[in-house]
Amino acid sequence: MSQVEDLHIAKPGSFYGVYILYNINVKFKGQIYIGFTVNPGRRIRQHNREIKGGAKQTGRNNKGPWDMVLITHGFRTRLAALQFEWAWQHPSVSRRLSHLPKKTRKESLFSYRLRILSEMLNAGPWNRLSLTIQWLKQEYIQQFPLEKPPPFHMPIAYGEIKTMKISKKKSKDTEEKHNEKDPLPSSDDNLEDKKCDICQKENNTGETMLSCILSNCQHKAHKTCLAQHFLSQSNESNEFLLPVSGQCPSCDQDLLWSDLVKQTVHHFEDTEDDNAEQSDSEDDEFQ
Question: For 187-192, which contacts have Cβ atoms below 8 Å and span 24 or more sequence positions?
């Protein structure tokens, strides 16, 4: 399990995260809330009624303010993040988590939810995702259970998440300007057009190509070919579609699958669309 100190990122690709809030109101201190977001900075402002939006539960009877303490992000789709959110909210009815011990008297609500999160990260199918666990507030940091730390390919990061803010009009104008002035890359510069080093076939179908992330290695391959190569190095090929890690066929260096697929993700654009945030449902977890 890797750790990244003071990570401040503008996450590439569409951002989908599942977070936990901690109530700092003296009347309700210690209560927690679990939710989904596409923009952490905007979401906590909504919960604290600084801007429009937010969940009904966190605003009912003016129970704020709240701190956004921790967020798990890196989900490739909104649906994957929402499914993770629901299981974290309802472990007693989730078929993958219902066997876990319930909250004990000695456990705080926050410690209990952290224990559930640790179990989730180590259970299928979540244990194969390329997720990052990010502490947003230093004063809340706790150790994950020693017997169930996050998998080694899921880094633990610290610090605020910063996102680029690009209006829709600006994004469109930038794209048009780029198309007018910059020619398309030649086939020699476009990874998609090169030959796969594993199957030795030209990439005529436009399938995603991946290259080794090491600067001194020129290996490149179809995404499916490289995945099969990694899986063939383990006993997982009959059970899983995507690997966690493997050795580069060319330089033999150990590589994380998550580091390789990041090459194919587009830059994140945080637009001013007020409807971009998922509306909270009535059964959102609030304790």
Answer: 191/220
**d(C-alpha 89, C-alpha 190), whole Å:** 44
pLDDT (tens, 9 = 90+) of the chain, 287 residues, equals 444 444 444 344 578 999 999 999 988 888 999 999 999 999 999 999 888 876 666 666 567 799 999 999 988 889 999 999 999 999 999 989 999 999 999 999 999 999 999 999 999 889 888 899 999 999 999 988 888 889 888 889 999 887 665 555 554 554 455 445 444 333 334 555 578 888 888 877 677 788 888 878 888 888 888 888 888 877 654 455 677 778 888 888 888 777 777 665 443 444 434 444 544 443 444 45
Domains, the chain:
3-158 (no CATH), 191-264 (3.30.40.10)
pTM of the model as a whole: 0.68
**Cβ within 8 Å of residue 89, ≥6 positions away:** 34, 283, 284, 285
Backbone angles phi, psi at 4, to 5 degrees: -120, 120
Measured between alpha carbons, how far is 220 from 223 in angstroms, rounded to an integer?
Answer: 9
Torsion, Cα 276 157 124 147, to 10 degrees, reads -150
Q: Which two tokens stand for residue 75?
A: 């989900």
Q: Partners of 57 in the beta sheet?
A: none
